[in-house]
Structure to design on (265 residues):
């Protein structure tokens, strides 16, 4: 399928959760003060379903994500002019079903569209995302557990992309902002890896789950070797990722939705 798309790559990921995430951060020498702090929000229309949580937009394959600089200190604070980005993503998606305008990685001033395949263990999932840069305000104050009426300021092109997952303006009206996730991101190189490595440490609330995701990008032809090399680096640090890699976005959104529903009662 990769031959269908120009410039498509594989993003290879390893996720470590809980105490293993903290161990991995320390083993790799990732100091919070040396990374970029982010506050991350998502939009969905969560509801309880028995003992579980339903996320209708995510279940339809649509993710709406806002990332803002976070200077810490108890609030999702970014200074005026700080670069933020709002992303509309289809994941999973069938790239072959997308119209021609969404089949080529491209970008312009303040925006980027890309189609790529996520590799996590033995899982392979295609995604298509349109990211727009801006100086977005935070959708909610504090920990965002209460209702946040601020709608996602999607561009017409982002709405068009989401429409291919069946998400229309009517489907977005019930969406609320969930978050923030507190994150720290590092980008660095290692002599034992041929490609730059990105690390992101996510924490959801004071007592919620935390994750460290390691990722790198490679052309499809090189992806198997790059994945093997990244896995070897992790194992050589004495770390053991879970055999089944759960999506950090799905896990974080479920926890955020649970917090939101508790606060809305």
């Amino acid at each position: 399928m990769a031959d269908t798309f120009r410039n498509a790559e594989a993003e290879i990921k390893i996720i470590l959760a809980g105490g293993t995430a903290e161990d991995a951060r320390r083993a790799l020498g990732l100091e919070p003060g040396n990374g970029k702090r982010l506050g991350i929000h998502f939009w969905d229309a969560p509801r309880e379903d028995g003992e579980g949580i339903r996320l209708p937009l995510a279940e339809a394959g649509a993710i709406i994500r806002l990332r803002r600089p976070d200077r810490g200190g108890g609030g999702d604070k970014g200074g005026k002019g700080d670069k933020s980005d709002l992303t509309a993503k289809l994941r999973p998606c069938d790239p072959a079903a997308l119209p021609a305008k969404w089949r080529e990685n491209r970008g312009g001033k303040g925006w980027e569209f890309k189609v790529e395949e996520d590799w996590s263990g033995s899982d392979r999932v295609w995604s298509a995302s349109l990211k727009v840069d801006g100086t977005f305000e935070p959708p909610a104050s504090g920990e965002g557990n209460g209702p946040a009426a601020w709608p996602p300021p999607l561009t017409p092109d982002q709405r068009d992309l989401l429409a291919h997952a069946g998400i229309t303006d009517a489907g977005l009206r019930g969406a609320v902002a969930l978050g923030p996730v507190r994150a720290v991101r590092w980008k660095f190189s290692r002599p034992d890896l041929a490609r730059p490595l990105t690390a992101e440490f996510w924490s959801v609330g004071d007592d919620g789950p935390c994750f460290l995701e390691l990722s790198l990008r490679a052309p499809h032809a090189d992806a198997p070797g790059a994945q093997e090399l990244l896995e070897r680096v992790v194992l050589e640090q004495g770390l053991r990722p879970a055999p089944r890699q759960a999506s950090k976005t799905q896990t974080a959104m479920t926890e955020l939705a649970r917090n939101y529903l508790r606060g809305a009662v």
